[in-house]
Design goal:
This protein has one helix and five strands; from the N terminus they run αβββββ. The protein is α+β, with helices and mostly antiparallel strands. The longest helix is centred in the first third of the chain and has 27 residues. The chain has a single domain, classed as OB fold (Dihydrolipoamide Acetyltransferase, E2P) (Beta Barrel), CATH 2.40.50. It has a five-stranded antiparallel β-sheet.
Amino acid sequence: MNLDLDPFSIAILLIVGGGFLYAFFYIWRVKRNGIEAEGYISRIVEHESIDSDGMTSVTYDVFVVYTTQEGRQVEGELSNPKNRLSVGDRIQLKYLPGKEKNPVLTKTLQ
């Protein structure tokens, strides 16, 4: 298999790969070292885009409200949202001090 990639394609692959690697390690670090809290899904924002081939894709930003260890109420966007979350769902999460706006979902609660 011969892959002749131009420098621009290589740069794009490195940037995208680096982004995935950063996201993976951020989630791992928060799950390992984060402060645990409970919250609820406050809103879900849907984004629809159409690519050059006319294919439609939908992504969702999932926001959660929770109280920090210091007693401050925060709304943040989940770094690792799961499918099938609904507004009002109770969840368990972890966050890093100084990064309260980017909590990580650890589990859904009943």
